[in-house]
Amino acid sequence: MGLGILEVKSHVPVPGTSNVLDDASRPAFPQNPDAVPLKYDKSNAFILVPQPTDDPNDPLNWPLWKRDVILLILSAMSVIASTLSPLLAANTVTLAIYFGRDFTHMALLTGYHLCGVGVAGVIFVASARIWGKRHLYLLGTVLIIISSAWGGAAGTNYASLLWARVVQGIGLAPFEALVNASVGDLYFVHERGKRMALSNLALFGGAFFTPVLVGKITQTIGWEWSFYMIAIFAGALLPLIFFFVPETAFARPEYQASSRSGENASTPLNGVHDLQISGESKDNQTPNQSGPASFEKQSTDSKNRNAAPFANTVPPKATFLQSLRLFNGRKSDANFFKLLLRPFPLFFHPAVLWACLIQGTLIGWTVMIGVVLAAIFLGPPLWFNEVETGYMYTGPFVGAILGFILSGLLADWSTKLLIKRNKGVYEPEFRIVLVALQLVFGCVGLYGFGVTAEQVARYGWFLPDLFFAFEVGGMVLGAVAIAFLL
Question: How does pLDDT run across 352-368, given as a tens digit for each residue?
Fold first, then answer.
């Protein structure tokens, strides 16, 4: 495989490895005469990966505008949902005084909330694999509405607010875990880049911009309204999700789900697939915007031979009323409980364990900084109020945006460079390059914040906020690298 990546001794296809650039030094392989013909987009430039079916209910066959509307609605709800975790960051000391509790009890309001996210996420991912995602998006939205109204009405009852936070975590879980998966359901590989950036920006951007607004809301109309506002906006989005976000999961035949479209297909193995190196990248080209029309570079005889086994199996297009159903059939024959337990053995996989350690560390420190930020700046020597403490999240918000921009630029550039050096073969390990930047930005941010926050009287507010931005930028770079690697 080259570039230090271990060579596979067996002939079993390696997931993620793809031939994306013609190279004279790499041997060509004969075409498979019995393979299913490949479909191309209307510009005849891209092999569609994954290959769409002939089913009109396949999300990949929906018009692009419809798919984009679905993503925009889910991204808008992701912004609302992602505000839940840092919701109390600017109000920690204020709530400690209000409830007559110490700082630890206030931190537990966020800690148990995150426990709800983690536990529910495991269950919801397994449910989505079998029954789809639509019912989970609706359930999550309803839970967010109820729990946010509950939290605002908790009064001085700390236990009631604590349980409301747990339920908020459960409601957040579908949007934290499944929106990126819906991007994979709705778009071909060459269409996913900008859409994946949008969905991730909705989650990270919403999380870090929330305290900027919450501080002002708390000072103006009271902390309860930070909960009520979420209930109001989530309630406004609920009808949009119900009427305009149909089920995105689709039971795709195995031969069409493969991302290695160059093998066992009716085009040469050396064809350009996911990335185009000689020229502009896909995101800079202009594929047809009206839908994923298919071109098949095959003779008529080849088409007829391959299409025969699938003749007369195309179902009718679902009506609008049918698309409103919570469930439209199983998406997998896998056992629910096996899927429920599957994530736990994966922790022993070296790549997963490594990803959890490096990314989990930065996420954990990000949460910790958010918890202690109010304690540092609301007290002496700066005596910030809730509004000024909330404004301290402007730095990490900018850091998150810059992290996404930097990762987007470097991910494509570094990958294309390594593909050229690897004789046109793409390996998912090429994305690890971004982890080097995560190390630099993350360490600079953590050490810098620790030093400057300890001596805030000497350094003031700007340097801690700057280093917080560095830490968040490193976390974002790591998130992008790990997502592509896994």
Answer: 787 788 778 888 888 78
